[in-house]
Structure formats: C-alpha cells, structure tokens
Amino acid sequence: MSADLVAAAYAEPRLRRLFPWTGMWELHFSRCTEQRWTWDVPYIGPTAAGPDHTGPYYVEGPSRAQRIGVAGTAREAVAMVVERLPPGCGPAFVGTPGELAAYESGRGT
C-alpha cells in the first residue's frame, strides 16, 4: 500500500468518516466498523505490483466486476471514489453490516 494513497485518502474528509480496511494491496472503505465490512463504496488498488505498490491506480466497485477507471495519481483515484459515494455516506456505523441494515431500516432509509 502506497503512503501517497493512504495520505490522499486521509486528506479527504468524506473518506475519513468511513472505516478503512485493506486487502490484496487494495484500500477499501466501509460504512460500518465490524466485519464483514460493507461493499457499497468503490475501492482503490495499484495497477502493477511493484515493491511499493504505487500508482497508477485502478478504481473499482462497489463489486469486483465494476471497473470505474484508472487514475495516474493517488489524489485522482481518491476523487473518483468520492464522486461515487452512496448518498448520505458516513459516518461509519459502529457495528456489523447486519446491524447497520437494521438501523437503517428502522430509520426508513
């Protein structure tokens, strides 16, 4: 995971409200804090597996079958994620995806 990518994501207030998690050199964002995290926010990964896993970056999601595009820099990749955040996204819900769904259904969202 590139330090540039982590810094760019942290610099974005809307992403700081979400729960970050990593896997397979990718940076994901969840709307809840406990596993199994949500998969309704796009995520970022490196296009080439180099020693430091730096850009360019691909942006996909929310599912692995949805390629959004390729960004030359970490900032561009973060911007692509932010443009596609679900409505009303954040802050991260303290709990599991099931608990989040129950909370949201009780609120009528």
Structure description:
It is elongated, with a radius of gyration of 14 Å. The chain has 109 residues and is α+β, with helices and mostly antiparallel strands. The termini are far apart. It has four helices and five strands; from the N terminus they run ααβββββαα. A hairpin with a 2-residue loop joins strand 1 (19-23) and strand 2 (26-30).
Task: Describe the structure in brief.
The chain has 109 residues and is of the alpha+beta class. It contains 4 helices and 5 strands, in the order ααβββββαα. The termini are far apart.
Key structural traits:
109 residues; alpha+beta; 3-stranded antiparallel sheet; two-stranded antiparallel sheet; 4 helices; 31% helix; DUF317 domain-containing protein
